Amino acid sequence: MLIPKPIGGAIRGSLRAITDRYAPLQVQLVVTRRCNLSCGYCNEYDDFSPPTPYEDLRQYVDHLAELGTVVLTLTGGEPLLNPRLDDVCGYAVSKGIVVTAITNGYPVNKTWIERLNDAKLTLLQVSVDNLEPNDLSQKSWSRLKKKLELLRDHANFSINVNAVLGSCTVDETRTLVKEVREMGFYQTVGLMHDGKGKIVSGLVSDDALPAFHKEITMMSRKSVFHYFGEGWETRMLAQGTAPWKCRAGARYLYVDEDGIVSTCSQRRGKPGIPLLEYEREHLVYEWHLPKGCDQRCTIGCVRRASSIDEWRSQDGEPWDNIPPGGRPNGGRPQDNEAEPDRRLISISVGEDEF
Known about the structure:
By secondary structure, this protein is an alpha/beta fold. The chain has one domain: TIM Barrel (Alpha-Beta Barrel). Helices cover about 30% and strands about 15% of the residues. It is built from eleven helices and ten strands. A ten-stranded mixed beta sheet has the order 9-8-7-1-2-3-4-5-6-10, with helices on both faces. The radius of gyration is 19 Å and the shape is globular. About 50% of the residues are buried.
């Protein structure tokens, strides 16, 4: 059973999320851009950046607590390459924030598991994309099964295995889902997207995929939290679009290793405001703001965080109509097609979280 820690903080956060529509439900915080792998679909890493300093991360956590953040997801790069990951986790938990993390699984060992147990991590998401490594991903069942067995036997936190539809054949994905279920873990299956967060065209052109995604979704073990914001995938695969009201910049924030707030990992630099300067007025502004890139978006974590407000209207000025400096406090919107100053590959994967 997925039990958020601290339970008191989780309850208070849930009540705040219901009563305050501008409170961030999930923040993804990059604790290092460096990764030990080089997967073909990923544009969220490099092989040289140092870990974000712990004192900086403490300041970010303090400010996120002040903003009313419910869930903090520590990510990268590969977050286990930050030697103080557990300290960041423990500090955030002490502030009443539920903490999760995302890993490719390779650095997992018993020492790390014990440290994250002590830090009261709620959930660790392990990315497993295929049975054997290929050009798109090195995160394979054959390489990670023993790591997952170690987590099963020693972790006090929950495990979610995330796969990506499009990173291997349909038959391999079906086998992977069965293996994960037999091991007793939660599972999500995201849809592969390009470098702007939009679904890759190859997935839409396959008429069999909508039914297949529904099949493997029903096969996957889930907690109650997994059902928030699900159901759009079938329509996306069938029609290539799945309209929704994106609340990124408010219900969901992406904070990079330099402490800069973006609406999501694929729109880095928008709004481009330092987290320590990001205030409630920015949350309100972005909550009301249509993003313009939402119909083909497959960023699952943003859809989940936004789903609680789907019934509410969104009446802000469309993103592309806002002139430079039009955001509160000097936000710096950039050209909608400008790509971030990081290594970009033409294909990328959405981050899926509980």
